[in-house]
Design a protein that fits this description.
Blueprint: E1 6-11, E2 32-33, E3 37-38, H1 41-49, E4 54-59, H2 64-73, E5 83-88, H3 102-108, H4 110-113, E6 121-126, E7 129-131, H5 135-145, E8 149-157, E9 166-169, E10 175-179, H6 185-190, H7 195-198, E11 209-220, H8 221-227, H9 235-243, E12 249-253, E13 258-260, H10 264-273, E14 301-303, E15 306-312, E16 317-319, E17 322-328, E18 333-334, E19 339-345, H11 354-363, E20 369-370, E21 375-381, E22 386-387, E23 392-393, E24 408-411, E25 414-417, E26 422-423, E27 428-429
Parallel strand pairs: 1-4, 1-6, 4-5, 8-12, 14-16, 15-17, 16-18, 17-19, 19-21, 20-22, 21-23, 21-25, 22-26, 23-27
Antiparallel strand pairs: 2-3, 6-11, 7-13, 8-11, 9-10, 9-11, 24-25
């Protein structure tokens, strides 16, 4: 008998403009996270933990670093048929266009997936969310309900639902109504959930909730092929509403931590929350690990430091510095007398040698990392930044300022030093 295929498709997203300047030189799935991971590691790990190892990542913008990360991280033996493959937009005889939306991206690559069997399933996931989900349970519920499409949904307060696709379900969890990103408070209030959803929640309390689509779908292969036999371009705006009343669609209610990391503020807040004593997302769960590139770096080295609630990845060197509520990525270097307070430091791609230090001195530029007696607050330091001595960076009270060519930017109230930027000795940016 032909073995059933469960094909996982991770949407790499568009230009990631809301996450700029972090996406100036990389696509959203390649943005570093929690010191040592990349955003794409989250959906890939959810797939692998469920035993689903045929994974495609669809993307079209700034893919070089994503290619490197996936090639370095996900290597399978030749006997189990596993892979993580990147499919970028390409010109073909049938199409010369870039992806026009999520549905169009899947349509253009259907010939790569080879999932046309009667029992085959497609699991479609977002590449820029932080969550841990038992996808095997989602598929089991999809099969048990007899659904042709299952949409994972997160109960959210009515005041949190704007900008997300909202749905109404009956007592059998079948979707009876779907509205993509409503803005009218009356429409949102009209989609408040009933007891069938509240019973699935851990602690619903007394407030009103609605069900928001997480952008994670399970499709029967036949249903997906038929739905894409059109000129529709987006799942949330067109495919899902178009299937109402034509295909059986059910909801999988997910009442756990989920963060849509679509903006600079959301990215910053998600990283800083990881420094809490009991963070909302647990990277220490060995039964459902988050996988990433094994770098074989030395352990981090701390000399005469004050550390208060921090995450430090491998290979960090911190000397006589104060670190508060911050995450330090691989190979982060912080020197004497400096203070990092609420900082997401992404680290570096390499260690500098004495020869590099000598060359930097001749060239008049700081070494990679944070120099001596500098203060950095409420900030993101992208890869390979060079912060000099006696620098002060604090966006508190300052207006947003970002765009092409701005190396020390402020967006959503968060200061961002862009990748490879140089901040000279004595530079001060504060109100």
């Amino acid at each position: 008998m032909k073995k059933r295929k469960i094909i996982c498709i991770i949407m790499g997203g568009g230009r990631g403009s809301r996450l700029s300047p972090l996406t100036q030189e990389r696509c959203k799935p390649a943005v570093p996270l929690a010191g040592k991971y990349r955003l794409v590691d989250i959906p890939i790990s959810n797939c692998l933990n469920a035993g689903y190892n045929q994974i495609f990542v669809l993307t079209q913008f700034n893919t070089a670093s994503l290619h490197r990360h996936i090639q370095d991280s996900y290597k399978f033996d030749p006997f189990n048929g596993g892979f993580v493959d990147i499919l970028s937009a390409e010109q073909t005889d049938s199409s010369s266009d870039w992806y026009q939306g999520t549905a169009d991206a899947v349509r253009q690559n259907m010939h790569h997936f080879h999932g046309t069997g009667e029992d085959d399933l497609y699991v479609i996931l977002s590449g820029d969310q932080l969550y841990r989900m038992d996808l095997e349970d989602v598929v089991h519920e999809h099969d048990t309900s007899g659904a042709e499409v299952t949409i994972t949904a997160k109960p959210l307060g009515l005041d949190e639902a704007e900008g997300l696709g909202l749905m109404r379900i009956n007592d059998q969890l079948e979707i009876t109504e779907f509205v993509e990103k409503p803005k009218d408070p009356a429409i949102i209030k009209g989609l408040a959930v009933g007891d069938s959803v509240r019973k699935k929640m851990k602690d619903p309390g007394t407030k009103d909730y609605c069900l928001a689509s997480m952008g994670i779908y399970v499709f029967n292969a036949k249903t997906l092929v038929e739905a894409l036999d059109s000129d529709t371009t987006d799942f949330g705006k067109e495919i899902i509403p178009g299937l109402l009343g034509k295909a059986k669609m059910c909801s999988y209610v997910f009442d756990d931590y989920w963060e849509d990391i679509g903006t600079v503020k959301a990215f910053f807040d998600a990283n800083i929350r990881l420094t809490e004593p009991v963070p909302p997302f647990n990277f220490f769960d060995e039964e459902a690990r988050i996988y990433t590139h094994a770098r074989f770096l030395p352990a981090s080295k701390l000399n005469s430091c004050v550390v208060e609630r921090a995450i430090m990845a491998d290979g960090c060197i911190v000397t006589d510095a104060t670190i508060k509520h911050s995450t330090l990525g691989v190979r982060s270097v912080v020197n004497d007398g400096s203070l990092l307070d609420s900082v997401v430091m992404m680290g570096a791609d390499m260690f500098e040698t004495q020869r590099d230090f000598d060359r930097n001195k001749v060239d008049g530029r700081p070494n990679i990392g944070v120099g001596k007696n500098s203060i950095v607050k409420h900030a993101i330091l992208d890869k390979n930044v060079r912060i000099g001595d006696n620098v002060v960076l604090d966006p508190t009270g300052l207006p947003d300022n970002f765009g092409p060519g701005v190396e020390v930017a402020i967006r959503d109230g968060v200061l961002v030093v862009t990748k490879d930027a140089i901040v000279p000795d004595g530079f001060v940016l504060k109100a």
